Amino acid sequence: MKITVPKSYLKVFCLSLLTLIISCKKDMKTQAENVLLQEWNGPYGGVPAFDKMTVNDIQEAVETGMELNLAEIEAIANSTEPATFENTIAAMERSGAELDRVFSYYGIMSANMSSPEFREIQGVLAPKLSEFSSKINQNKALFERIKTVYDASLVTPLDADQQRVVELTYNGFAMRGAELGAEKKARYAAIDKELSSLYNTFSDNVLHDEENYVTFLNDDQLDGLSEGFIKSAAAIATEKGKEGSYAITNSRSSMDPFLTYSTNRDLRKQVWTNYYARGDNGDEYDNNSIIAQILKLRRERVELLGHKNYAEWRLQDRMAKTPENALALMEAVWPASIARVHEEVADMQAVANASGVKITIEPWDYRFYAEKVRVAKYDLNSDEVKQYLQLDKLRDAMFYVAGRLFNYEFTPVPEGSVPVFQEDVKVWEVTDKDSGAHIGLWYLDPYARQGKRSGAWATTYRSHTTFDGKKTVLASNNSNFVKPAEGEALLVSWDDATTFFHEFGHALHFFSSNVKYPTLNGGVRDYTEFQSQLLERWLSTDEVINQFLVHYKTGAVIPQELVAKIKKAATFNQGFGTTEYLASALMDMKLHLADPENIDIDAFERQTLADLKMPTELPMRHRTPHFGHVFSGEGYATAYYGYMWADVLTADAAEAFQEAPGGFYDKEVAQRLVKYLFEPRNSMDPAEAYRLFRGRDAEKEALMRDRGFPVN
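^ that's the sequence the OP posted. Answer follows.
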């Protein structure tokens, strides 16, 4: 039989084929020339070429990565084969490898090494990345195939890990508007695009204020500050072209010790104001109107899906399930928290009065007089404790804990064998202590610098999966410690040491992952903080204290009487810590439950705090105009309560170790910890995972006991 093809069809076919060939050649050329798109080569299963990345390559790499990923998605969506787990869900799990690699570099440029040039490119890419996500989330043919697999799995269940991936994928698409009509889908995508630009602007504004509000001191303004802090401040001032001065940067790691020890009250007020006014200075970098726009758009978007407010939509797949449940926990703790603040302030005011200083305690006095109360009540001087808290020794302590609980060994990689993006970044190989099997690499970026976002965080460049060959983990911890002067030890506070352990807990969660599919490496926000919060507890174990808390000059182990004071004061200042956090968490939730129409952010913040009877002597941990957790993206939006939810799990799990014969190093409890709380990641329901570990649900009374609050 002879088939005749019309010339017009043949012409269209040839043109399409030619376009495809040109496009493929372009993509091959781009991948060959752009290092950010290339496969990772070298040891340890391949590593990112951080030493070769440049800002000039990032836009092309992201745009090409999106094109390649969309082509893969189109191929899956338009397959003529009946939809199955393998040709739809597993195929999606395999897609986007090039873009994933690019995002590792993008994340470094955004968080660790930002520059005006990059921020300009980031602003251009933000709406494009939003459009890219919408093209996938709103792909009707793709969602129909996902739904076919999902519906079939309800009749004939798949293997447990496959079933979990299918459910997470289906629910994720449904939550993001896959079932909407064409008109609503278009509006949903437009909102996402607008929000992406607003998030980017919000972050840039905060970073601007962090970089530009620096307090420079002279020799007459250093009273109360430690020798090490003064040397660091001098070095930073020199870097900023102010040799002979001392720089107090607008970061928590610089602000906190200054407010704790400086005797100059006027300077304390200036440094405090700089820090808590980030994003709220009434200039072109002010974030209040941006937040109002974000809230309005978020509400409109979830209303398209039939939800009353953003919080209701967001919490449906979290442990809390509803905003009411999250609020109930926070409001149960709040009265005891602010009552403790009033007690702390009374103690501080008494110390101030006794010293003959005629003041009323203000927010810039809280840390300063809290330290004096600590000394008076517990004979515990934080600066004395810092002499035994060297960052390098704390790092070794974390390695020790990882060895005891996870059987991991950390070995420094030879200098230059693994590329790094900045000379201060160091790398360790992680192996199994018994078999020597390679598990991954751990990168540490410890110091604050220009262009690095504030705070501390953990991230992954490559996560563990096994379904397409075992992939080892590349993970990093990032801090903002003030870099010590040459030859000086970096001494940190007990709170900073706790945060260091906390973020390492996230890294251990990454390294211990034992899942097959990439999607299962995710997590539920009010659960994933739990594992890292729990790891903080090992800092105060005798094994760590007696081996790693040694004096930075003499090498002497911290005296037992000082350890006893630390433990006795364990619940000291819990009013401050709990209240400053809870105020931010409650504000996050209440902002998203409020009517966003014509909302005045500044007025709302003040009125909400007044309604809560927030003590005036301390601020929220994150004031709304610089609340990056919530307004530089959506990761923690209506989810900042999650730290408190995780705190309940943490306190309850800590009691499991306290009750065990071997304490915090009990082998049987440690094995359950790794098996049920770390290895599964998101491959099972978090509540079920916790029950397997503990034998029951967590009890909130454990949190109250842990913080020294009365238990009803």
